[in-house]
Design a protein that fits this description.
This protein has 10 helices and 6 strands. With 289 residues, the chain is mostly helical. It has a two-stranded antiparallel sheet with strand order 1-6. It has a two-stranded antiparallel ribbon with strand order 2-3. Strands 4-5 form a two-stranded antiparallel ribbon. Strand 4 and strand 5 form a beta hairpin. The longest helix has 25 residues.
């Protein structure tokens, strides 16, 4: 029992940044989708990520051949050769990518003290959000994986490696193709869970709320993950790695920012009406002007 408690405590204390991001995910996701859907997605997302990692370390599919170095097995939770925190990370990475895709695609209603995406059920479950959300998640991994591979130089620790040195700072391109496939599956799973019933169309799901600027929580989490990993990259002295990451992510962010600005307060009345039909509890209902 003492060993179990020690490993449980170590799982959190050794990776406080992961669990800080996970807590931020709950703060962002529950008011957006409700606690039932988020609880279900957390389980489904974790299991999907775990199976993808377990498959890759045993068969090389979908990320290519890599291996975990279980030097912390006696200090944090590992499951079948995969560290618990690693698979858990996919959950909040998927949600913030999904929420950011919605923020880019949906019309936006803004006023001085708040703003809201005029998302609809059909938009949430659209192919556009699926495609863009999965791409956003791959962009995160393009920033994360190279610096994570240098874990011995910072507080992550050297926990994994690839059988062969890859073309992108040691990371093989197969890893990113695998990430796109798994991200596509994860965003699709989140969409299906979101489309699942559980409450009537007019009934506010448990946990859904309208705190100020709730629409921004997911995108802020997304940017926070980027900033954290780019900061660590610079901290360990990998300037070229950080610069390459910026060259990859800045065009996508710039295009997204322009799209968001152009769609703000330029929605059609039909778009607002459909949003309020789908989500009558939306804060936009109090600001119809």
């Amino acid at each position: 029992m003492e060993d179990i408690l020690r490993i449980a405590a170590g799982t959190v204390t050794m990776r406080p940044y992961v669990f800080a991001f996970f807590a931020a995910y709950l703060v962002a996701a529950v008011p957006h989708l409700g606690w039932r859907k988020i609880a279900l997605f957390t389980v489904v997302g974790y299991l999907t990520a775990f199976l993808s990692e377990f498959s890759s370390i045993t068969t090389g599919i979908p990320y290519g051949w890599y291996y975990y170095i279980d030097v912390t097995r006696d200090r944090e939770l590992w499951i079948a050769g995969v560290p618990f925190f690693d698979s858990l990370s996919y959950v909040f990475l998927t949600y913030c990518s999904y929420a950011t895709a919605i923020f880019v695609v949906a019309p936006i209603k803004a006023w001085r003290w708040d703003l809201v995406t005029l998302e609809t059920r059909s938009l949430r479950n659209s192919f556009a959000v699926l495609f863009l959300g999965s791409l956003f998640q791959v962009f995160l991994d393009i920033i994360i994986d190279p610096v994570a591979l240098q874990g011995s130089r910072w507080f992550l620790g050297q926990i994994y490696g690839y059988r062969e040195v890859g073309a992108h700072f040691g990371v093989p391109l197969s890893n990113y193709l695998g990430w796109w496939l798994v991200s596509f599956v994860l965003v699709f799973a989140l969409q299906r869970i979101d489309a699942w019933g559980g409450s009537s169309r007019s009934e506010r799901p448990a946990g859904v709320a309208n705190p100020p600027f709730r629409t921004l929580y997911g995108p802020i989490l997304y940017v926070s993950v980027l900033v954290f990993n780019l900061s660590v990259t610079l901290w360990i002295g990998e300037r070229l790695m950080a610069l390459t990451g910026l060259f990859i992510i800045i065009p996508a962010m710039a295009i997204s920012a322009v799209t968001i600005i152009r769609r703000t307060n330029r929605y059609r009345k039909e778009e607002l009406a459909e949003h309020l039909r789908d989500f009558p509890w939306s804060v936009a209902s109090a600001r119809k002007g």
